[in-house]
Amino acid sequence: MSHLIIEQGKEVGREVKVPAAGIKFGRSPANDLVLDDDAVMLFHGRFFFKSDGTLWVTDFGAGEKTTVSGEPVDEHQLKVGDLVEVGHTAFRIINTGRAEEVPVSAVAGKNEEECADVPEAPENEIDLGFKRHKKTARKKGREKEPPQKGALLTSRLLQVSVILLFLIVLMIVGPSLFELSRTDVPAVEQKESLTFSYERVMGTPRNIFRYHVELDDKGLFSVRIDDLKTNRHQLESKEISDTVIEQLSIGIEAAGFFDVDSDYAGTVENQYDLYKLAVLRNSRFHHITILNWTPPVAIKRTTQLIEDFAVSELGISFTWMKEPEELMQLAENAFEVGEARYNERDIRYGNLASAIVHLKETMLYLETIEPKPALYHRAAGLLEAAQTEQNVRYEDYLFRSDRAIRLRNWDEAAKYLRILNELIQDRSDPRYEKVSAKLLNVEQHLR
Hints:
The N and C termini lie far apart (about 90 Å). α7 (about 350-365) runs antiparallel to α8, α8 (about 375-405) packs antiparallel against α9 (about 410-425) and α9 (about 410-425) runs antiparallel to α10. The model is unreliable at about 100-130 and about 135-145 (pLDDT under 50). The protein has a 7-stranded mixed sheet with strand order 15-14-13-12-17-18-16, with helices on one face. The protein contains 10 helices and 18 strands. By secondary structure, it is α+β, with helices and mostly antiparallel strands.
């Protein structure tokens, strides 16, 4: 008998039976009940029976909460008539009883009784050929008859012929089979598959910060970040290649996530600190929730791996995980150093490059803060001035070094090129590679 019926969604009218082991539901094909609903998470929740036979629903902590009769739940006992809503899909509970299985022993006993009811035929009863025991008796009687000598000889000759034929085939085909067995057959590599959902929530009486990362079965990697206090919101997504997915999958396995065998929960006053991670790797599913508890080392390694991956693939700033007050303090410290190095640009050639680095760092700390503070605009203005002066000095010293090279004045050319090396310190700048190549060539003439 069915336990649920879909009243709302793309499969209205479909009845669902909950087996004794329970069923997981969500968008992922790895679930027992796959829902075609964009508002449902990959691994959303589970219907199951407890030991007392009652039917329950549990929510895996998805962003879109499961509700029972309009109330959000984490785990809830169900009764007939309850309406369970998941995204845009709704289930009506029509039965809460666990299905009972018919014991095999009962069926076997019934068959034995039916067989016992068949009466034995009396000795003088005429056998019409419908009773099994009579046939058996006849068969046994026939077996007692000695075989004919001619038939026995024919059977022996047939056996010898088959053996000889087998030996001939083995002599012909055997060497080829031996060579084939020595040939290395390349193993078929199984394609790495990975989907996951990672949610990080930090809540206090003053703010709620939520960080949600998801990789779906189509290779779409997405990140959503919300900070209520500063009104910061960001949503980024990108399709990633199979090679990158394989590297990430191996990294999660190596981090030890699948070795963590239980959830953790504690109580902290005025704080809500949540880690929720569900991973499906090569048909192996694992789900861990940690609330107000120091996460195990394996969970820290796994979440750090995913967060670093989001930074590298989607350009998500690391500053999202820091409070605005801390970011302002870091920005002020970086600006103080950058401004000092700019003012000392005539003391050392490298001070101008150092000023540019610290001014860029100042703006990086403030990139997620809106509206932008005055310090951001001061840093941007000073950075533009520093880069302009760096370009002017670069052109001047490059001209001097080229002139010395044409005059074959190698000592003077090397001096100006070393100044340029201090002036341009960013290895990603094409000018750095150009200056280094010129200096290497000039030093060859000085030997």
